[in-house]
Write a structure and sequence with these properties.
Blueprint: E1 2-6, E2 10-14, E3 24-37, E4 43-52, E5 75-78, E6 82-86, E7 95-106, E8 109-116, E9 131-135, E10 137-140, E11 156-162, E12 168-174, E13 180-184
């Protein structure tokens, strides 16, 4: 599996290589799911149900098919009523957050999953092996932060980043989850 994250709120989990030529069949929207977290607010997995969010309607979950990326220590359980993904195998969820997701499918099964987050993703320590892109959070103006919005840690260190236009961005990096924040002039 591979994961992309943008601004700690847009997440996509790839099960198949989107770069391969394949016939995309459809997307299933508004599917009920729960995001799973450990006691340190780390995102550790998700449960996808065979139900439409805010409805009594049930669906037939698509086949997962072959996962085309390394699974590392992840554990995938599938039955007719739910799909459970745990990114670190036998970890125990201490909190479940209700949301909905979109599932992209093709002839070979599920291509990817996009949870529709109602809040920031949380800590990323458990999912680090799967992350292929994690875009920083951009803050506008002169806002100063004292706590990470992902993992709630107050262990922030000041950082600078050179842009492709030789500008220097100033910001912070969380020493707990590596989330970066940069200031841009409005």
């Amino acid at each position: 599996m591979q994961i992309t994250i943008e601004d700690n709120s847009l997440v996509y989990i790839y099960l198949k290589d989107a770069g391969k030529e394949r016939l995309k069949s459809d997307s299933l929207n508004f599917i009920k799911c729960h995001l799973l977290y450990d006691g340190k607010n780390n995102f550790i997995g998700m449960r996808i149900f065979n139900e439409i969010e805010d409805s009594d309607e049930s669906i037939i979950l698509p086949l997962v098919g072959e996962i085309e990326f390394p699974l590392h220590n992840a554990k995938l359980e599938v039955n007719e009523s739910e799909i459970q993904i745990l990114f670190a195998g036998e970890v125990m969820a201490e909190k479940e957050v209700v949301c909905e997701c979109t599932i992209d499918v093709c002839e070979e099964g599920m291509v990817g999953i996009e949870p529709m987050l109602r809040e920031k993703i949380g800590g990323k320590e458990v999912i680090k092996p799967f992350i292929i892109r994690d875009s920083p959070t951009i803050l506008f103006g002169s806002k100063i932060i004292d706590k990470c919005t992902s993992c709630k840690s107050s262990e922030l260190i000041e950082v600078t980043e050179q842009t492709t236009h030789c500008e220097e961005l100033k910001g912070w990096k969380c020493s707990s989850c590596d989330q970066e924040y940069y200031l841009l002039e409005e």
